[in-house]
Amino acid sequence: MKKYSLPEPEVAVLLWTSLMTMMEWNKKEEMVPEQAVKHLRQYTSLLSA
């Protein structure tokens, strides 16, 4: 963030948007929350940084 002078909130939005667009979401709405949790678990270390 410091290298490119990006504010932390902007980095968070960019990161979240990127993670969410990487996934092809299920068409059944009731399946999406479970699918999202499984997807985001892979990136917990990145999200906690």
From TrEMBL:
Highest taxon listed in the record's lineage:
Eukaryota
What InterPro entries does the annotation carry? eIF5-mimic_regulator (IPR051245)
How is this protein annotated for GO cellular component? cytoplasm; membrane
- Which PANTHER family does the UniProt entry name for this protein? BASIC LEUCINE ZIPPER AND W2 DOMAIN-CONTAINING PROTEIN (PTHR14208), PROTEIN KRASAVIETZ (PTHR14208:SF2)
Query: What name goes with this protein?
Result: Basic leucine zipper and W2 domain-containing protein 1
